[in-house]
Amino acid sequence: MPRRTAALLVAIALGSVAAVGCSSAAAPDRAAGSSSGAGAPDAPASASTAASPSASSSSSSPSPSAAAPTAVASTEAPTPSSSPAPAAASVTVRGTVTDGLKSPWGLAVLPGGDLLVSERDSARVLRVSAKDGSKAVAGTVPGVTSGGEGGLLGLALSPDFATDHRVYAYFSTGSDNRIVRLDLDPSRPAGSQLGAPTVLLSGIPHGPRHNGGRIAFGPDGFLYAGTGDANDRSLAQDRDSLGGKVLRLTRDGTPAPGNPFPGSPVWSLGHRNVQGLAWDPQGRLWASEFGQDTWDELNLITPGGNYGWPTVEGTAGRAGFTDPVAQWHTADASPSGIAFADGAVWVAALRGTRLWRVPLDGDRAAGAPQEFLNGDYGRLRTVAADGDGGLLLVTDNTDGRGSPRPGDDRILRLDVSAG
Question: What contacts 381, CB < 8 A, 6 or more positions away?
Fold first, then answer.
């Protein structure tokens, strides 16, 4: 049953919305699963993103507008929590961790602060020094086929990485997407520090678009994966398909105990393309989702929940489907990675070329989504908590859909503060 209805949404106008619209003038062939530019999951950046980043830029605040709303959030009474996050916050770009990356996608923070970064098209995993930002190739993952939105995508560290040195990766082959496990041995020479991949789960539908790709370990110790419908919308509602789902797995790739459908790795269904996963301190799972023509979504994921695609997009208030907690017009988001920090979910937007903040009060939004860095750094692929209360933000302007600037792509370090 839906938790929220359209009557309980508060619409707040954010930023310049001159280009806002629910869809292009020429409607896509929805039955065939095609997308307009506005709804394409990794749509090219709009012309408004052409501004060069400013080295001295420290923060960005939304500019109210009387035009149509670009973001809305549910205001249903919350589940009790410690305290709601302040409605407003500020962001400061502390500096650039590293630059010169090519189609970066996944990000993992190693013990001690070094970073692992996956490059989608080269299939390389880079190690970035926390001390000086220098890069070294840890290894190249064999079997990766790049093209379209496929390639080497998400990375995750084992919860016991300090002792087992295991890295998990999600990548595309010529026939499917799959999740593998690799050993990382930093004592070996650069370029050969990754062991041979062990396939944990194969057969995730693959297509030129909508491959999902985000993986992360939850507080329960199980591995979660966001998948896409591989441009075949019928898969999202098919419980026997791994496409258009959030999956929950053991560390060996088998369905985790307690999953809602016995013997299945499916945790939730009805998704178009999930590329962001994050947990709040209460252990609730949040996920971002690319819309088709009208609404991108931030969803609170519950076991067995059906999030509506392709029957509904955005808030529908229909029995049997779970409505999003927040939503954006597709021109303003195309959300990829998300992270939880300072009482809010932070959302990296590709086509929207900005960082969104959704303050939380329990299982609902505590205020309207707030935007930062609008157009300053182009397309934003991944955001992650840095372990110090701040954020790491990965740009993605070299993937063939952005407009690269000198130094792209880069990882930025952000300070965030609420109130």
Answer: 104, 105, 336, 337, 348, 350, 394, 395, 396, 399
Question: What is the structure's pLDDT at 73?
Answer: 72
Lowest-pLDDT choice from 71-75, 268-272, 336-340: 71-75
Helices (H), 133-205: 161-164
State how far the Cα of 229 lies from the Cα of 32, in Å rounded to an integer. 12
Task: Determine the Cα angle at 171 with ends 161 and 322, to 5°.
Answer: 90
Q: What is the pLDDT of residues 193-230, one digit of tens each?
A: 999 999 999 999 999 999 999 999 999 999 999 999 99
Q: Where are the alpha helices (DSSP H) in 102-186?
A: 161-164
Q: Characterise 133 by phi-psi region: left (phi > 0), alpha (psi -120 to 50), beta (else).
A: left
Sign of the Cα pseudo-torsion (114, 391, 400, 54, in order): negative
Bridge partners (DSSP) of residue 72 are 11, 327
Question: Do the Cβ atoms of 195 and 210 come closer than 8 Å?
Answer: no
Determine the Cα–Cα distance for residues 355 and 373; give it in Å rounded to an integer: 6
Task: Return the sign of the alpha-carbon dihedral for residues 92, 98, 104, 107.
Answer: negative
Three-class SS state of 412: strand
Residue 110 CA neighbour count, 13 Å, CB half: 20
Q: What is the DSSP letter of 386?
A: -
Read off the pLDDT band of 43 (50, 70, 90).
Answer: low
- For residues 225 and 179, give the distance between their C-alpha atoms in angstroms, rounded to a whole number: 9
Phi and psi dihedrals of 7, rounded to 5? -70, -15
**Edge-to-edge strands, sheet with 124-128:** 104-109, 115-119, 124-128, 135-140
pLDDT value at residue 42 = 55
Q: Which helix (H) or strand (E) holds 179?
A: strand 177-183
Q: What is the pTM for the complete model shown?
A: 0.84
Cα dihedral 13/15/21/22 (nearest 10)? -60
The DSSP 8-state label assigned to residue 418 in this structure reads E
Measured CA distances, 305 to 72, 197, 323, 325 (Å): 21, 32, 10, 14
